[in-house]
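[audit] Reproducing an earlier prediction to check determinism. Same input, same settings, fresh worker. If the tokens differ from the archived copy the diff job will pick it up downstream; this log only records the rerun itself.
[audit] input (399 residues):
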Amino acid sequence: MNPSLENLQLYPFQKLTRLFEDLVPRTPLPTPIGLHIGEPRHSTPEFIRQELINSLEGLAHYPTVLGTGELRASIASWLAQRYHLSAIDPDTEVIPVNGSREALFSFAQAVIDTGMVSRPAIICQNPFYQIYEGAALLAGAVPYFLNQLPENNFSADTAQLPDAVWEHVQLVYICSPNNPTGRVLTLDEWKHLFDLSDRYGFVIAADECYSEIYFDEGHPPLGALEAAEKLGHSGFPRLVVFSSLSKRSNVPGMRSGFVAGDATILRKFLLYRTYHGSAMNPAVQAASTVAWSDEQHVVENRRLYREKFTGAMRILEDTLPVSMPDAGFYLWLRTPVSGIEFSRRLYREGNVTVLPGSYLAREAHGIDPGEDFVRIALVAPVMECMEAMERIRDIARKF
């Protein structure tokens, strides 16, 4: 077996199951509310469901890894409109993938070159989506972390790592809007990251699966491709963006997303994927084509999240140091005790399940930036989320 498997930690939700094993819930216990998994629970739009059904004849054919021209054109058109791009080529700068998670993991396997240096480095923000770390370890790389702390507005200060590390960096994972903090990178931050990429030659993997959950219809989050074009980086050199329909269109079970960006990198990634056997289901491709072509259902989706966040702020603000994220559907909530203890109390006394922040972070530079936080996914229906916020408030007041 691959010895690197021994370096993988338990996935956060496996840790959570173990955390609650010894708890004896109080009685009578209220209805359980799970806010620990970032799984969208709004209804899948009917027109997407219908297109999936109408396209089942496609199951009789092998799909190509590059996907249909119609799907790539739909994605490219959406990208151009959403991010004000002057051009993006659907034939060379877009590849459909089976959800951003699969592509984020496999991308490291294609990018990392252990022949260049004995211990290539991958960098990601901390706390972070655990796939980045697993991808690094199984590609033979060493993960390094940029702590995101409240005192600097959860920015990932690259000065935390010395030049000696940056010289070995081959891949940087950046999640914006960020999971779990909800922070969106500014244009100046993208410029700094692009400058570092120019200097050291590393590839940037921009995870943007939360890009379409924001709260001001007139100010959508800045995207990586948009930032590159604004800054004159023609052709998106060493930049690949990862996006998904899961959160945008409430179809996590379709496992549908895309990668877009540097055509040279994508040509090699496509070759890798041809051997990887990761072509998208033809019926899913058809449903994805119509999903990327419609915005009205996404506006309604954002309205529901906006309602939940507004209510959560109102309920929690007098008790806990809560603030609105820039985007996304997570509350990254600072807790009066450790996130682990707070999560146990919520589960035992309120039957509310959230995720301890330390399960999404690693100790780096002498601290664990997730230790005193919990991540709350506002994915349940509005009234259920408000009930959970009231239980969280009432339990927090006991500390």
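[audit] rerun output stored. Observation attached for the diff report: The chain has a mean pLDDT of 96.
[audit] end
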